[in-house]
Write a structure and sequence with these properties.
By secondary structure, the chain is an alpha+beta fold. The protein has one domain (2-127): Cytidine Deaminase, domain 2 (3-Layer(aba) Sandwich), CATH 3.40.140. The chain is 28% helix and 25% strand. It is built from 5 helices and 5 strands. It has helices at residues 2-6, 46-56, 83-92, 112-115, 122-128, and strands at 17-24, 29-33, 62-70, 98-102, 107-111. Strands 2-1-3-4-5 form a 5-stranded mixed beta sheet. The N and C termini lie far apart (44 Å). Zinc ion binds at residues 45, 47-48, 81-82, 84-85.
Amino acid sequence: MALAAREQAYAPYSGYRVGAALLAEDGRVFTGVNMENGSYGAAICAERSAFAAAVGAGARRFKAIAVAGGRGAEADPSAPPCGICRQVMAEFCAPDFIVILGNGAALRRYTLEELLPLRFELEEQENAGG
Ligand code: ZN
């Protein structure tokens, strides 16, 4: 589903096309694509657009996300989520949330804990402050 979503990516400036498929705990899957903008800072990543679609549909807990991204016709199996997307994952997902990167032929699997150790969590910060 991430590969299929990637076909709809809007990346006229970088040519870096990304599709994501996010699996909610209730079994629903939400897809997203990166969407660039002539005002570059207005771009949004595929991972976050998938989370936005899911949260808008009422999903709050998630098991895994598959991400297929890269510049070429084939997705690059080593195209990891950016830091902002990792932080968005941390808002809704447990440390054992699974992140799968790949192009169908080659897959790499990580946990959110591996990609974002020592993550920022407001509740922990408040608790740490006493
Ligand atoms: Zn991102």
